[in-house]
Write a structure and sequence with these properties.
two-stranded parallel sheet; 8 strands; alpha/beta; Rossmann fold; single chain; 200 residues
């Protein structure tokens, strides 16, 4: 823990659509000096905006394990925002988990998939495999099982209004959804408070 008695919080993927919202939510709850934003480039416009709030930036590339151990030095709690790289996702997540363990991270939060253990969605397998890696790591874990982002449905709103129906192949199926901002707030709260969900 840091010398000012505030845990150091690390957010991966901080320039992404979810990551930047998590940083904004953390800034409402904890001092900027306790937040570290993982980025792939210090020159990214969003990275510069984050740094302008007094948040420390560190290079952390899921595909470059050499960047991760240094990035996680002195970190108490880490939020891994799931990689969007299909095919490489699990190996990238493994790189992050191994580096976090080696760096002595005290709490690991992960943005998994809602019903990852029962979902027929193809991408649930990557999340289940990541959850298994986390279980094997021995790290204290918070699983943030996100539903489908509301924003993903916005492209279908105008056609639905035009046709008077939502057209799809789900039949009577239903889905649970929320905005990225809602999921970002829950991630920030769990990271700031240090909740540990013993679901593994």
């Amino acid at each position: 823990m840091t010398n000012f008695n505030q845990p150091r919080l690390f957010v991966t993927g901080s320039t992404g659509e979810l990551g930047r919202l998590v940083i904004a939510e953390l800034l409402k709850r904890v001092p900027a000096r306790s937040i570290v934003a993982g980025v792939r480039s210090l020159d990214h416009d969003i990275a510069k905006q984050i740094a302008a709030h007094g948040v420390e930036l560190r290079i952390a590339d899921y595909s470059r394990p050499d960047t991760l151990l240094a990035a996680f030095a002195g970190i108490d709690r880490l939020l891994l925002i799931s990689s969007s790289m299909e095919g490489d996702r699990v190996s990238q997540h493994q790189n992050v988990i191994e580096a976090a363990k080696a760096a002595g991270v005290g709490l690991f939060a992960y943005t998994s998939l809602l019903h990852a253990d029962t979902s027929p969605l193809g991408l649930s397998e990557d999340h289940l495999r990541t959850e298994a890696l986390l279980k094997a790591s021995g790290l204290p874990v918070v699983l943030l099982r996100h539903g489908w982002y509301m924003e993903n449905h916005m492209a279908s709103v105008l056609p639905a209004l035009h046709h008077g129906a939502v057209i799809g192949s789900a039949g009577e199926g239903r889905f649970a959804t929320a905005t990225r901002a809602d999921f970002a707030e829950s991630a920030a709260v769990s990271s700031a408070v240090g909740l540990v969900a013993l679901v593994l």
